[in-house]
Amino acid sequence: MFDLSMMMAKIVVILVGTLGVVPVMVWFERRGAAWMQGRIGPNRVGPFGLMQPLADVIKFIFKETFTPRGANKFYYLMAPIIALIAPLCALAVIPFGSKAFVNGHEVILQVAQMDTGVLFILAFAGLEVYPVILAGWASRNKYTVLGALRGSSQIVSYEISMGLALLSMLVVYGSFNPHDMVSWQQGSLGFIPRWGAFVNPIGALIFWISIFAETNRLPFDLAEGESELVAGYHLEYGGMKFAAFFMAEYVAMIMASALISTLYFGGYGILPGMEFAINLISNFFAFGEVGMQNTKAVFEFISLASKIAVFMFLFVWVRWTLPRFRFDQLMDLGWKILFPIALINLVVVTIGVYYFNS
């Protein structure tokens, strides 16, 4: 019963934390865009427009639902469900702390503990192409089909570069376990942290660019392309079905931010200065070993959340800074630039690891 209770508690933390961030990000994306572009943004519903996401949810709930005539109803309804569930499942193997002690029991701060955690993440992240294809094809609309074709080719193309960048770090870490990866990144290289981004900066850059394409965010949102495809693959969705796609985009952004933080930026490893705060709090309250570890676990969670917040901000910043690519430019970048660089980087990193380990 204790293990089941802890499992349910961890699931609730992930679900509440992730879904709770979505309305905040919706507000920040609109207000942040206005701030970056010298506009006002939503400022009527609640102070500083903070209640605008709630108003949007109420609007989606009461909007009339419809199904296009001639659509394949089963796949049409399944697409937004898969789009939302896949990134939530991928978050299950992201560790948000090392361990904590509850009633004398050691609790690993990770929903699903597995040695092949990275493969589990990639499996569910790879499912993101299916709702794009299903939504576009099942809607029976020429614009949705074009959006699905664009989205699927884009995601599949950039998955190769992302996979090679990830593989180069697996060579360094020598493990598929996210906890082992975070442990490897503890310490420092002189005056800089021993993060994967500093060990393999080219791989980190390629991975970061690729997750924009994987999450269909600007400047790689060719699957939606309002100026060309009206709304792309989810053109025929409205009400809560569209809201599910809308939420899925932000959940995928959170999952991608958590993944790149874990792989390249120390994961839940505490940030500089936090160790002093942990010792200060532990000494002030006279914590023992258990209390000190629980305090450290709280700061580890804050550290990972801070890194995710930085990448979420970068998602918004890039969206309102760079223009949308043409589709041929998008594919050229993926196949002619990122793929060769990622392949060469993998070879160089492999040789370097073999040289330093021999």
Describe this structure in words.
- This protein has one domain.
- The mean pLDDT is 87.
- The protein is mostly helical and 358 residues long.
- It has helices spanning 2-36, 52-62, 73-90, 117-126, 129-138, 142-173, 178-184, 196-199, 201-214, 226-229, 239-264, 274-284, 289-319, 327-357, and strands at residues 99-102, 105-108, 188-189, 192-193.
- It starts with a helix and ends with a helix.
- A hairpin with a 2-residue loop joins β1 and β2 (105-108).
- A two-stranded antiparallel sheet has the order 1-2.
- The longest helix has 35 residues, at 2-36.
Discrete helix count: 14
Sequence of strands across the biggest β-sheet: 1-2
Distance between the termini: 48 Å
Q: How much helical structure, as a percent, in the residues?
A: 55-70%
Number of domains: 1
Q: Can you count the beta strands?
A: 4
The largest β sheet comes out as:
2 strands, antiparallel
The global form is globular
Rg value = 22 Å
The helix/strand order is HHHEEHHHHEEHHHHHHH
The secondary structure category is mainly alpha
List the uncertain runs.
none
Binned strand content: under 5%
Averaged pLDDT:
87
